[in-house]
Structure formats: structure tokens, C-alpha cells
Design goal:
CATH topology of the largest domain: Rna Polymerase Sigma Factor, Chain: A
CATH superfamily of the largest domain: RNA polymerase sigma factor, region 2, helix turn helix motif
Structural class: mainly alpha
Oligomer: single chain
Radius of gyration: 19 Å
CATH architecture of the largest domain: Orthogonal Bundle
Helix content: over 70%
Mean pLDDT: 82
Number of strands: 0
Strand content: under 5%
Order of helices and strands: HHHHHHHH
Length: 174
């Protein structure tokens, strides 16, 4: 935790407003960089980072050990990115098949499958994960994905193919 001292974290935990502000300000670039690696889009990454910083600001007093700050923050960011991805998947599911009620068993199986797919996607290298999410989950055009990520269209297609293959293989073996 080289970006913040233990004394500063302890002062923030004790409610010192200047210390809390300093911890939040110091955490932002690290939290944002981590969110950029996990979230599907830069907008989601910024939103997830902001949400994590709000949680940090509000709940730093509940942190038990000052040394756990970094892992706590990154867990919040990870959960927020996952929540945003799930919401996106739920939104597409709601519009795809309105009016059909599913059994609790079907719903549980779908959630388990969604977790397996999410885990397979999480294991992908950064660029492959972003390409796959932007193209297959968000449905963005290939040129938009390539442009957003600074790739040629051919490179984007190559990353997408590798990502799909890796996810497919992981799901078969899991």
C-alpha cells in the first residue's frame, strides 16, 4: 500500500475528515486503473471507481485493519463491475423473452451458468476480455470496439476469436 501511509488510514478510520479526503484522493488512480481492467467500458470503469470511492468515504471507519485497505477497495471495485455486467445481462434477458415465467430451478440453473460464464470471461487477458464484452455482451459494432480500444479491425477480430475460443474451452473443462 505504497500510495497511503498506515497512520493516514488510521486517522481516517478515526473520522479525521482531512485524512479521509487524502485517502480517497490517493486511492482514485489505483481504483480507476483496476476498474479499467475489469469493467466492460470506460464509462462503467469510472462509475465503478466512483462508487468504490463513495463506499470508502462512507465506511472507512468500519475497516478493521488499515493494511487491508487495498484489498477491500479492489473487492468493492470488482463487485461493482460484476454488478454492472449482471445488470446489463438482466436487461437483455428482460427484453428478450417478456411474459414467460420460469421455475425456481430454471432460474437457479441460469444463475449458475451465468456465474460460470462470468468466471471464464474474468480469466481472459485484458484486451480479449474487453473486446468480448464490448462486442458480444454490449453488442457494439466491430469498428467501434476497435476504435475504442485503439486496435485495428483485424486485431480486434483476432482478439475476439481468441477470447471466444478460450471461453468455450474453459466452459467445456469446468
Amino acid at each position: 500500500m505504497g500510495w497511503v501511509s498506515e497512520q493516514l488510514v488510521e486517522a481516517a478510520q478515526d473520522g479525521d475528515l482531512e485524512s479521509i479526503t487524502a485517502v480517497v484522493h490517493g486511492a482514485h488512480p489505483h481504483v480507476r486503473r483496476f476498474a479499467d481492467h475489469l469493467c466492460a467500458s470506460p464509462q462503467d470503469a469510472e462509475d465503478a471507481a466512483q462508487e468504490a470511492l463513495i463506499v470508502l468515504y462512507r465506511k472507512i471507519g468500519t475497516l478493521r485493519a488499515s493494511a487491508a485497505l487495498a484489498s477491500w477497495m479492489f473487492r468493492i471495485v470488482r463487485n461493482e463491475c460484476l454488478r454492472r455486467a449482471r445488470r446489463l445481462l438482466d436487461d437483455t434477458k428482460d427484453t428478450a423473452d417478456p411474459g414467460l415465467a420460469e421455475s425456481a430451478e430454471d432460474e437457479a440453473l441460469k444463475r449458475l451458468e451465468a456465474e460460470r460464464v462470468a468466471e471464464a470471461i474474468r480469466t481472459l487477458p485484458d484486451v480479449q476480455r474487453r473486446v468480448l464484452i464490448m462486442r458480444d455482451i454490449l453488442g457494439q459494432p466491430g469498428r467501434t470496439v476497435a476504435g475504442t480500444l485503439g486496435l485495428s479491425t483485424a486485431a480486434m477480430k483476432s482478439h475476439l476469436h481468441r477470447a471466444r475460443t478460450a471461453v468455450r474451452l474453459r466452459l467445456r473443462t469446468a
